[in-house]
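Our consortium's second objective concerns turning raw sequence data into structural hypotheses that experimental partners can test. To show how far this objective has progressed, the report includes one record in full. It was chosen at random from the queue rather than selected for favorable results. The single chain below, 99 residues long, was entered without modification.
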Amino acid sequence: ALLSRDGKIGVRATSHPAAARLTRELGRPLTATSANLSGREPARTIAEARVCFAGRVEFFFDGGTLAGKAGSTVAEVDANGLKIIRAGAIASKELEKWL
C-alpha cells in the first residue's frame, strides 16, 4: 500500500524534534502524508492542517507552528545516484553527503 505505481517508496527524514522523538520512542518508522495537498502551500499550524484535510485525516499531531517557507526536497536515489525531483529546503550537495 505504500509503494507508488512504479514500485518506489518515499522516505522522509525529519528534523522536527517531536516527530523524531515519536519515532524513537515507538522504535519504528511512521507513515504520514505531507502537510499539504498536491500543488497547495503546506499547513504551518494544526488549525491550517485541520482545514486542509477536513474529513480526510482522522488523527492530527500538534507539533507547534512549523518554521521555514521551503518545502521538502524530493530526490530519487538509485544505482545511478541522486536525482532531484523537487528542490526544497535541503540542497542536493547536502543530500549527496549521505550517499
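The partners drew two points from this record. The radius of gyration is 15 Å. Helices lie at 17-26, 46-52, 92-96. Both points have been shared with the crystallography group to help prioritize constructs.
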